[in-house]
Amino acid sequence: MDTAIFFAVLLPILSILFLLTRGRRKSTKKQPPGSLGIPIIGQSIQFLRAMRSNTAEKWLEDRIRRYGPISKLNLFGTPTVFVNGPAANKFLLTSDSHTLSNQQPQSIQRILGYDNLLELSGDDHRRVRGAIVSFLKPEVLKKYVGKMDSEVKHHIETHWRNKQNVAVLPLMKNLTFDIICSLLFGMDRGPRRTKMIDGFQCMIEGMWSIPINLPFTRFHRSLRASTRVHSMVRELIQEKRLALKKGQVSPHQDLITCIISNGGNKGNEGVINQGEIEDNAIIVMIAGHDTSSVLITFFMRLLANDPIVYAKVVHEQEEIAKSKAPEDPLTWEDVAKMKYTWKAAMETLRMIPPVFGAFRRVLKDIEYGGYLIPKGWQLFWSMSSTHMDEHIFADPKKFDPARFDSQASIPPYSFVPFGGGIRICPGNEFARLETLIAIHYLVTQFGWKLCCKDDTFIRDPMPVPSQGLPIQLEPK
């Protein structure tokens, strides 16, 4: 009896001690190595300086050598953990919305808004993403290949024909912005487009910056431009609503009318509110304009430096051109034949991804790689960390489209220019279309030589080649 009483008393005590010691072990789990630096500023200035001097990859490689694949720092006013490798990419891209959210640094939030796909999680993300994908899915985009073809032809006739020298990046920004305005917003050419692009360029310059709103800062200038752009987009949305109500436009005329028709005017769980339409119109504008213009620009630079790949791309595109009457627009079926050209484009994305990296917000204390990452911190990952890893891609500095002959040979979550998982870029098919159509007309109508011996580039935050990549044109 005494023994039974003894164990009856002992067992609860042991249980309590076990729970206490388990909690103590959990609470003493180490944070990742590294320093948070000066409050608010942290390592932001060092990181931005490395971005603008094109040494950001080396800056991160130095961190990896010093601390390993997981380390803490402070970026843009928030304690941050940098994680590296395919496993880290998979963790970031596939974690559920109760563990990680897509919340961005303060600078991006305040400039782009709080209701876009970069911020939303869970049901809100699925609802808004569904509305956007309803326009950007392949079966819908098939209908707009001819319209995109027309924009590219007009651009070449206006800005390339009868020119001896051009700077590629500014022209590609004009082209992709015109395509965005035409297909996604239904905006005609004219002063309104010009005003929009001027404000847009100023707005995105401060997305990766220290969020200190003082008159002399880049962040302040971007905030002011953001106010102007949001106002213009808001006005455009109201015009679309009115035109739809009067039956003056088709519900699928462009992205905005499609979103409004699919959810923007319905009183159900699929409703997309005014702020969400506004913020996501701007996000789509960035994805379709800035990233694609960078891809096409560096694609042209790499082709100029590699005559073998260039010849293969030209051969593929000229075969397609020969199969058509001179004035016939490209079709969806034509674009589907551009297999080698798209492999070369993917190799460009591997070597020079337009987006350097991305952030996730930690929603609860988590353990990763043996370290504790506290709730409220952010995780940062970089595409280049796996894209340029020699253990994943042999001789990573070599431009070699043959890497993509069989994508099954590339380890999962190693090639991630469009992200992955449920958050894979919804506009990746749109980007493929505008890239391939633009390259088709450029390589079939022109040859080119690089005019600038300096082949470096900076990130601001997108890659910008020296002098905008000046080339000498050789009309065919």
UniProtKB/TrEMBL annotation:
Superkingdom, taxonomy of origin: Eukaryota
Gene Ontology molecular function: heme binding; iron ion binding; monooxygenase activity; oxidoreductase activity, acting on paired donors, with incorporation or reduction of molecular oxygen
PROSITE patterns: CYTOCHROME_P450
Transmembrane parts of this sequence: none
Amino acids binding heme: 425
Gene3D superfamilies (UniProt xref): Cytochrome P450
Entry keyword Endoplasmic reticulum: no
Cofactor: heme
Gene Ontology terms: biological process: sterol metabolic process
Keyword field: Heme, Iron, Metal-binding, Monooxygenase, Oxidoreductase
InterPro entries: Cyt_P450, Cyt_P450_CS, Cyt_P450_E_grp-I, Cyt_P450_sf
Family that this chain belongs to: Belongs to the cytochrome P450 family.
Protein name as it appears in the record: Cytochrome P450 716B1-like protein
Organism: Cinnamomum micranthum f. kanehirae
